[in-house]
Amino acid sequence: MQHNIPATDIPNNVLLVEDQPDDRLDVRLHLELMGFVVYDTASPIEGQEIFEQRDFSLVIIHIASLPLRALELCRRIRAAARVPILMLTKRDEVINEEMVMAAGADDYVTKPIESKILTSRIDQQIRRGQSQRAPRANILTWGTLKMDLSQREFTVNEVSLHLINTEFQFLQLLMENPQRIFSHNQILEAIGVLKGIGSNQLVDTHASRLRKKIRESGGPEVISVVRSVGFRLADAPIVGVEEEVTSAQ
Question: pLDDT (tens digit, 0 to 9) for every residue of the chain, 249 residues total?
Fold first, then answer.
């Protein structure tokens, strides 16, 4: 059921596409308590139509009865806009975390949903969406790492480190989105490489070489691997503490 409120009057609209009635009600009430205006539906077709009618700060999708339609809706929305997409998943369903990330989702929450986790993920995605709408920074920093986008220069501890173009784009993607997990496909798209035989291994190789280059230059571990899902920027480094990062599979 939609709210008959013009999109221009309410900046914090959330689209919720969920075909489980009890879960849809729970998530909707949760969002409304957080101050959002929620447009919810059980239909992926209606969800697409609603999305095209107004601006949204966040899209949340879970369609248990039509899992492939859920992925298709995610792909369509991602192709049309940069709005953050949060997918809901369940352990016994066909769709897994790797599939939703490959479809263009920014994050996922596994059912049964814990309120604190849902609130945290929503907050993270809303902040990410706001940062994307803000003017783009020319200088990115993370610990002792500094990336000058205008000069295409990367430094570790103020010492210049040469990165090939695809490595630079890979690391730029992570540094611009420090809370986001990226699938192999999303990284391939960002670095301008078509998906094909061996392309996933290419991403793993870039991640491994980046970590090695930065470590050998005295920098910290910069890339974390999320098993079976993808890559993200590591947690902010703590001086004097060496962080252990799982190797890419």
Answer: 343 333 334 458 999 999 999 999 999 999 999 999 999 999 999 999 999 988 899 999 999 888 899 999 999 998 888 889 999 998 888 777 778 888 888 888 989 999 999 999 999 888 877 766 655 568 899 989 999 988 889 999 999 999 988 899 899 999 988 878 888 888 887 787 666 666 778 889 989 999 999 999 999 999 998 887 889 999 865 443 333 333 333
Same domain, 200 and 112: no
For residue 74, what is the enclosing H or E element? helix 67-80
Tokens of 149: 């986008």
| CATH code of the domain covering residue 177 | 1.10.10.10
Helix, strand or coil for residue 96?
coil
Number of domains making up the chain: 2
In this structure, the strands spanning 58-62 and 37-41 are unpaired
| Continuous segment of H or E residues that includes residue 145 | strand 145-148
Residue 35 token pair: 């101050």
Q: Give the span between the Cα atoms of 79 and 112, in whole angstroms.
A: 29
CATH assignment at residue 53: 3.40.50.2300
Domain encompassing residue 111: 7-133
Whole-prediction pTM: 0.58
Asked if 164 and 98 sit in the same domain, the reply is no
